[in-house]
Amino acid sequence: IKDAVGNEYGRPKDIAGETRMAFTSHADAAFDVCFENQLTSTGITMNPTRHIELDIDIGADARDWSAIQAQEKLKPVETELRRVEELVQEIVAEMEYLRTREQKLRDTNESTNERVKWFAYGTMGMLVGLGAWQVVYLRAYFRNMSKALPLARMSFLRALPRAVRRAPIAVRPLSTSKPLYLANEREHETTPDFRETQKSKPTGPHMTNTNSTIANEMPSVGADKAPPELLTSVDPNFVPKDSVPENTERMTGGTQQGGPDSGSNAELDVGEMEGAKFKVEPIRRTGEDDNTMRARLLYQSRKRGTLESDLLLSTFADTHLPRMSTKQLQQYDVFLDENDWDIYYWATQEPTPTSRETAEGGNPDSSTPVAQGKAMDKTEADAWRNGAPRSGEWAQTVGTFKPAYRPVPQRWKNSEILSLLRRHVLERSAGGVHEESSAEVGGEGLAHSVQGTGGGGLGRMPDVKNFDV
Question: Beta partners for 3?
């Protein structure tokens, strides 16, 4: 056991079990306790270990009061009072030390504040003197210049006739270089050329608020994607894909398409998947009669793989398949090759107005409350709910629900089958997001309505029909 000064207070050896060692230090210092474990066994021991527990007590707690009581023949009460007395003395000494330190710190703080104050006064005086000196110097300088300027002008006028008479006549060709602009002009000499260069560049493509860089593969300028203002500089033929193509076509007056005809951003065809380089070709059946085709299409309508598509298409097939013509059956056969979720959204989504979220191109007051920075009315609900919030929403998003929108591809824009499917959704709707004047609560004009309950919904899959009967 050693302190930082170098004093040694003990070197006990052959310690086994619990032992206690007390000493009085010569001065306040840090202490080092070093343990050395020597293995004296002759046998081989794998990974020998020894657990050591070290407890350090300081002051009155470090003394062996049992030995003091036995040595001085003190009573237990006297021993306890003596121990408490020493503890109190230690506390008093610690408080005195803290008071001394606090007084020293206060004196240092006051001294530092006094020095900073005088330093600030000195700096202010120096700045005031420097300013006064500058004023005096500049006044004297300009006064001397005003006196010397008329003298210099008169000397120049007297010497000018002599220089004109003595100067020989010389002919020098004019410079063909571009003259420099005058110093008082603010425009740089390269500004006109730069302006013409910028005007000659093609303008960037129009991007509505329904464009997304997630759905578009942007041109690359190296390791990063090109920002929208540099798209035409990288690829002059780039056309962004709009999730609502009608928005771009209306906002540009038909000068820009809502999506490219080819490339990575082009509209996916049947059997194509985003990000995949292969195409899954659908199987085409030939030689089927109408009843066989109806039975197969009924099976395909009932076995889609998602509950929403199963209920939607099975009820549609149950209603319309028996009355479809051969041409309509063939069109429905091709329609079922589309993706299930695409069919679901095409049939159920509402047609969105052009950029209504931010009222692009119109009055800002016509935009949605979210785009105007206003709080959404959490009590907003559909009329048929009689003020109740929409079901199935989280408590934090009541009234802010926005249905997903998937644009209908050109191949199905004027499809008779898609029109029938949308009409089927309207007729089966109990109100919801789709409302129509003919879909009344009374049930008139609804193919599968129940009196007094609206359209009846798509609650269950209908029974299988036999088209051969």
Answer: 31
